[in-house]
Write a structure and sequence with these properties.
It is a single chain. The chain has about 100 residues and is α+β, with helices and mostly antiparallel strands. A three-stranded antiparallel sheet has the order 1-3-2, covered by helices on one side. Strand 2 and strand 3 form a beta hairpin. The longest helix has 14 residues. The chain starts with a helix and ends with a helix.
Length: about 100
């Protein structure tokens, strides 16, 4: 029984480790906006990123490209925050554990 507990603990800890090459987990989200700029575009970009990254994200850089009709295309290059092991017993109630 002690061996199985040790194996389960090691398996749980290994799931929280980094994969190594974080450049594979970078991606981009884009939206268009008028040249004067507006906040709904920023909210749209944040909404798109939050649909992919459940633990939050970090904006690496932002590109702006000209489009037809005087519009701009905004492209955010993002990286999701990694998962981390959280063993905070105060966030769980006893009824939820059993």
């Amino acid at each position: 029984m002690r061996i199985w507990v040790a194996i389960l603990i090691l398996a749980g800890l290994s799931a929280c480790g980094t994969i190594g090459d974080d450049t594979r987990y970078r991606f981009g989200v884009s939206a268009d906006r008028p040249p004067s700029g507006n906040m709904p575009t920023d909210a749209t970009l944040a909404w798109k990123a939050n649909q992919i990254c459940t633990q939050g994200y970090q904006v690496l850089h932002q590109d702006t490209m000209n489009a037809e009709g005087g519009l701009h295309i905004i492209d955010n290059h993002l990286q999701c925050r990694p998962y981390s092991l959280s063993l905070d017993p105060t966030t769980y109630s006893l009824s939820a554990m059993f």
